[in-house]
Amino acid sequence: MDEKTTLIVVLDACVLYPASMRDILLRLARMGLYAPKWSDEINAEWMRNLLKNRDDLKKETLERTLGRMNTVFDKANVTDFDHHIPIIQLPDLDGRHVVACAIECEAEIIVTKNLKDFLKEELEKFNITAQYPDDFICDLFESDKEAAIIAFKKQLESLKNPPQTKEELLQTFKRNDLPKAAELFK
Hints:
By secondary structure, this protein is an alpha/beta fold. The chain has a single domain (about 10-185), classed as 5'-nuclease (Rossmann fold). Helix content is about 55%, strand content about 10%. The protein has 10 helices and 5 strands; from the N terminus they run E-H-H-E-H-H-E-H-E-H-E-H-H-H-H. Strands 3-2-1-4-5 form a 5-stranded parallel sheet, sandwiched between helices. Helix 2 crosses helix 8. It starts with 7 loop residues before the first strand and ends with a helix. The relative contact order is 0.16.
């Protein structure tokens, strides 16, 4: 798919943090439904928070996951965007790097669970919108139902340790704030 016509989307740390959400988002991207983007700062944040909250995870495991992400999506990591930060006005100054990343890669959407931190009026200045992950996944499903279902099936097939049933994965979606997506993939 031509990258110029592909929907460019920055994935915030909070949507990369839960493994099931990260997995479905990246599988949808693998199906060509959008081009994911992130930065070293975004990745450091989700990895740091996972390691802080989950004693059972090892840094090396997350680094392998990130390495695979950067290999599969070799144009996803955005750099050299700090010069945009001073012009961005947000309630949470720590979120400016996400918007700067989106400006630099000309993303149309930032997928985030923290919509309140990304003021609509501020993002409009840069032709960017913030979208909740459940809504984003549902929009992708509606744009190409067949590809979305294939992505979901591949996610389900990949769950081997421990294996999950379709119903269990859908429950995981619901627990991770993806109730509408869970209904669509039923």
